[in-house]
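If you are new to this repository, start here. Below is one unmodified record pulled from the training split, so you can see the exact layout before writing a loader.
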Amino acid sequence: MKTTDKVTERLFQVLSNEEKAYLELSTQQIQEDYKKHFVRIFSTLNRRLSFHTRESLISIPAEDTGKLLIVNWSVLKLARVWLLGQVSDDEANYQQFINRLFEFADMHELEALYTALPLLDHPESWIERCKEGIRNNIGTVQEAVIEHNMFPFLHLDEESWNQLVLKAFFTGKKILNIYGLFERNNESLADSIVDYIYERHSAMREIHPMLWILAKEHLPSRALVILMESYEQEGDETKKSILLQSLASNREQLSDSFKSAHAQALEQISPIKEVLEAYK
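And here is the target side for that same chain:
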């Protein structure tokens, strides 16, 4: 599946004339015989772009990018993903070729491959690769799957989706960069989050405020006690605003003393979109 015309246009805007000519020639070679030329082009592209070009960051509005979410990508990553969109073949040959790319890619090439998952033909063929990316112990490779990527939202089953979200918390990813985070929130995930909250609390470790948001509709009494305690101990006003969202959703189950002490705050809840935007 090729990238959109807008993506191509934006990519070529940041290239020098020499770099544009190289990508145009590479495209022609890939379309003529990708098995002969693609690996060489893909793996050596970092040497064909200037340092300034390849390290420059680029973002493109989502409405112009199809299924890609291009947010602060390096130009090198975008160019590699764009090249992947030039490969076309029948299903068997295509799968075999892309799988070999995954098997022999270095770290930076893996980042591009996982980032490109939404672009690849035959998406059902890449679900297991997506799960492998979530389990990968290289942080930037994990990030390529977890953050700003539509593929998990569109294709993972509930269990695998929940594992992705939990792994994001475990490894310190930017939770609000998970595409479809709220649309795919579910009770099973909330139950796992509550268990995680108990573990963090017992170990006297910080509890990520977004855990409370995702589990707010399924908080048992023990968790609510921890939530009230966390709110009263939190010194960051932005994080307190997030905790208030969960407190307000469970207003009837809060202790009378807590409701009395924080009556004004509970009556002045900001819209959740504003709260999360401030947290970003």
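Two things worth knowing about this chain: Strands lie at 57-58, 73-74. Residues 139 and 171 are 8 Å apart (CA to CA).
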